């Protein structure tokens, strides 16, 4: 509830590799994630910004995976979120953190082989308005290499959401 970790992943099926395109880890409120301004009839927030960037790159985001309680509490209950999904032809998939978290096969540990065998690819060069790509990716690296003893686990959880749900898409 204090910090959000939002990760944008691109999966390349032929190579079975996951590419981290962007990572945002900071305190946010629900409207910072996705909001609707009735007066200007516009959407705003991280979801809208990243969705537009993905369209501009020619590889539109097709799925947003959100922690189950966040999806129920902040997103799926609102009409503007359903309109945004329809406008962008995207699915919002709730991820149940508690059911599989400790499972060796389906829990957070399932992402270890993807890192070990190079199926996770992280940026190494500067990106547009961000600090160096490697700099913000190191937030994920720090958590992955220290999990479960890391002081935070927001980024590793977001990575797990993507890889776990990605096997079913």
In terms of topology, how is this protein built?
Blueprint: E1 4-12, E2 17-26, H1 30-33, E3 35-37, E4 42-44, H2 46-56, E5 63-67, H3 68-75, H4 79-88, E6 91-95, H5 97-100, H6 112-116, E7 120-121, H7 133-146, H8 154-166
Parallel strand pairs: 2-7, 5-6
Antiparallel strand pairs: 1-2, 3-4
Helix pairs in contact: 7-8
Describe this structure in words.
- With 169 residues, the protein is of the alpha/beta class.
- It contains eight helices and seven strands; from the N terminus they run E-E-H-E-E-H-E-H-H-E-H-H-E-H-H.
- The chain has helices at 30-33, 46-56, 68-75, 79-88, 97-100, 112-116, 133-146, 154-166, and strands at residues 4-12, 17-26, 35-37, 42-44, 63-67, 91-95, 120-121.
- A three-stranded mixed sheet has the order 1-2-7. A two-stranded antiparallel sheet has the order 3-4. The protein has a two-stranded parallel sheet with strand order 5-6.
- The two termini are 27 Å apart.
- The relative contact order is 0.17.
**What is the end-to-end distance?**
27 Å
User: What is the subunit arrangement here?
Assistant: single chain
The largest pleated sheet is described as: 3 strands, mixed
Global Rg: 16 Å
- The poorly predicted ranges are none
Q: How would you write the strand order of the largest sheet?
A: 1-2-7
Helix content: 40-55%
Features:
3-stranded mixed beta sheet; alpha/beta; two-stranded antiparallel ribbon; 169 residues; 22% strand
